[in-house]
Design brief:
Layout: H1 4-10, H2 12-24, H3 27-44, H4 49-54, H5 56-67, H6 75-87, E1 97-101, E2 110-112, E3 117-121, H7 122-141, H8 144-157
Length: 171
């Protein structure tokens, strides 16, 4: 069985990429990464590939409900934000839309009463998702069946390259 350290190592590429996006100010890329992580994590728990395709919305919302949802940004809002960004479709939500902003903006989880749009600080969302992934690791360690499934699926869904890149000889 994997340890929490091994799970962290397996997800190191995601955590490091979040850090690189923050450091370089690539907030649009960071937003995409933040919104895909619940999908990656929830897909790892599925026994069969066909389950991953048929139940994406249910899996995504369930994962968000357990690990990242809050009263003012619940699992349905996470799903709506994901659909809005990845598929350019406004999914019905209690908000009329979302305004994603870099850190230092007017705030996080602020509702504009005139438009009913929720303002979200992408940096704060990233912190929230990484904390959620940590809570997910803890839950996996308490659920041997789910952990076994995740261990089996990690090589399929999480990219890990332990070898340093080969450099061409400069001539």
């Amino acid at each position: 069985m994997m340890s929490k350290g091994q799970l962290r190592f397996s997800f190191k590429v995601y955590a490091e990429e979040v850090g690189r996006c923050k450091k370089s100010g690539c907030y649009w890329s960071l937003l995409h990464l933040v919104l895909v992580l619940p999908e990656v994590c929830s897909a790892l728990e599925m026994e069969r590939a066909e389950e991953r395709e048929n139940e994406t919305e249910e899996r995504y919302k369930n994962w968000c409900r357990k690990y990242v949802a809050t009263e003012d940004f619940n699992e349905g809002d996470w799903w709506a934000a994901r659909r809005n960004i990845f598929h350019e479709r406004l999914t019905p939500s209690r908000y009329s839309g979302f305004v994603f902003s870099p850190p230092g903006g007017p705030g996080h989880k602020l509702l504009d009463p005139a438009t009913n749009k929720l303002r979200l600080d992408v940096w704060s969302l990233a912190d929230q998702v990484l904390a959620g992934v940590e809570r997910w690791f803890d839950a996996l360690l308490e659920d041997p069946k789910a952990l076994t499934c995740v261990e089996r699926k990690i090589p399929e869904l999480v990219w890990i390259d332990l070898a340093p890149p080969e450099r061409p000889n400069a001539s």
